[in-house]
Write a structure and sequence with these properties.
- The chain has 193 residues and is mainly alpha-helical.
- The chain has two domains: 1-137, no CATH class; 140-193, Arc Repressor Mutant, subunit A (Orthogonal Bundle), CATH 1.10.10.
- Helices cover 68% and strands 0% of the residues.
- It has helices spanning 7-14, 18-27, 29-39, 50-63, 73-93, 108-112, 119-137, 141-152, 157-164, 168-191.
- Helix 3 (29-39) runs parallel beside helix 5 (73-93), helix 7 crosses helix 10 (168-191) and helix 9 crosses helix 10 (168-191).
- The longest helix is centred in the last third of the chain and has 24 residues, at 168-191.
């Protein structure tokens, strides 16, 4: 069972432990992937590879780790999100053949967890969004695709059926199974901590 981002690991990072930063970044990789996927207009387009974009963002985060002034895991997640959005936006803008959603529209993670008005609530929301991205990454690819299509991209069952080469009824069943599986993964991964 994967451990949610621990406070101990975060504190080690705050004390300058670069290895702890590496473990934190590795844990947040699915969150970065969700942000990047949401920024791209079409996942099938040519251009910068998702893994390259993540690696570039994590390199930027590692190089600027000494500038992080947050005091919570939620603030770390928000800081990393800002780096991922800016790095990805620059990379995709520099490539003429790749479409990119404006960074302010790239809020897949905020669709998963309702935004709060206070900065502390926002930090918690970002931490929960990162945890949700980790939970989503544990699902099979088709389940991730149908959840993203329905919840983030607001696609109907017919459109997803064409994309997945299934009937609309089969996609609806897949969607319901994906929701159940996500709930189970969430319970196993995060509710027990």
């Amino acid at each position: 069972m994967a451990d949610p981002i621990s406070t101990t690991l975060f504190l080690r990072f705050r004390q300058g432990d670069q290895q702890a930063l590496g473990v934190l970044l590795d844990h947040l990789r699915p969150y970065a992937r969700v942000i990047i996927r949401n920024m791209r207009d079409d996942d099938r387009q040519a251009g910068a590879d998702e893994s390259d974009l993540i690696q570039e963002a994590f390199l930027q985060a590692t190089n600027s780790a000494n500038t992080f002034e947050g005091v919570s895991v939620g603030e770390l997640v928000r800081w990393l999100r800002t780096i991922v959005v800016r790095t990805t936006y620059r990379a995709l803008q520099s490539s003429d053949d790749v479409g990119c959603t404006d960074p302010e529209e790239a809020h897949l993670a905020t669709l998963v967890v309702d935004p709060g008005p206070a900065p502390a609530d926002e930090a918690v929301r970002h931490e929960q969004s990162a945890s949700m991205a980790v939970a989503l990454s544990r699902l099979p690819e088709e389940m991730q695709l149908v959840l993203r299509g329905r919840l983030a991209d607001d696609q109907d069952y017919a459109g997803l059926a064409r994309q997945l080469d299934r009937s609309p009824g089969a996609v609806r069943v897949l969607y319901l199974r994906a929701l159940r599986k996500l709930r189970d993964v969430w319970s196993e991964e995060f509710d027990s901590h």
